[in-house]
Amino acid sequence: MTELTKPEENNQGGLSKALQSPMQRRAFFRYAGGTAAAAALLLTACNDDDEITPMPPMEGVDLGSGDIGILNYAYALEQLEAAFYTEVVSKSAGALSADEMKVMMDIKAHEVAHREFFKAALGSKAIGGLEVDFSKINFSDKNSILTTAMTFEDLGVAAYNGAGQLFTDSGNGLTYLLLAGKIVSVEARHAAAIHDLMSNNARKLGEELIDMNGLDRAFMPDKVLAAAGPYIKTKINFSNLPTK
Question: Could you tell me if 7 and 41 are in contact, meaning their C-beta atoms sit under 8 angstroms apart?
Fold first, then answer.
């Protein structure tokens, strides 16, 4: 497996160069998820208006504003997905075949890597852990598991597609956009795998999610968080996110 060269700890360009070079997906996330120094580089020179204003615990969490707010938004979604697949792997062995469980274990590993990367990258600016609510999911029923997985994966792809345009147009924003592009491609692979399982490997392309121009859906944060809301107990304040 190709080794990822560690960027210099005091050089923002090192991380940008690493993100722009070809690498194996698993190598990147293994490195990114476990390297706090690299994560710190990702947030060097953030603008003051990206600071998160603390809120009382009962008010839930404030995602913040600017690029930091968008990164926290992605972090919230990755927390939800990682929690779901952790539950699936823990509780659903009797409902899924060995091959299906292998897919779930692979997706879990990716989502946990995404979650830990954002947590490390955001550092002190990261929102806290979200409390999830999976009470309406039957983890002993294959259809319930796959339907929820398909919902989360399709929503995740649309969320990253919509969020990309909200990053600033230069500097760190371009680095974040590149990172989001690498993650959304993994989420799309997950969505395709789940659609295959739902259709008994009929290799459907999810045509209902693609428009007449061959483009996938792009959802803004308000629509995404409304759809994810039934699975998240923690109140999320996203009112300060950019809306361009």
Answer: yes
Nearest to 221, CA basis, from 14, 17, 104, 73: 73
Type of residue numbered 129: G
* pTM assigned to the model: 0.75
Overall size of the chain counted in residues: 244
Contacts of 227 (CB under 8 A, 6+ apart): 151, 155, 219
Asked whether the beta carbons of 28 and 6 are under 8 A apart, the reply is: no
Give the dihedral sign, CA 239/50/164/166. positive
The closest of 45, 137, 157, 40 to 87, measured between CA atoms, is 137
List, for residues 20-62, the tens digit of each pLDDT value: 434 344 444 444 444 344 444 454 434 444 444 444 444 679 9
| Domains in the chain, CATH or no CATH each | 12-237 (1.20.1260.10)
Q: Is 216 helix (H, G, I), strand (E, B) or coil?
A: strand
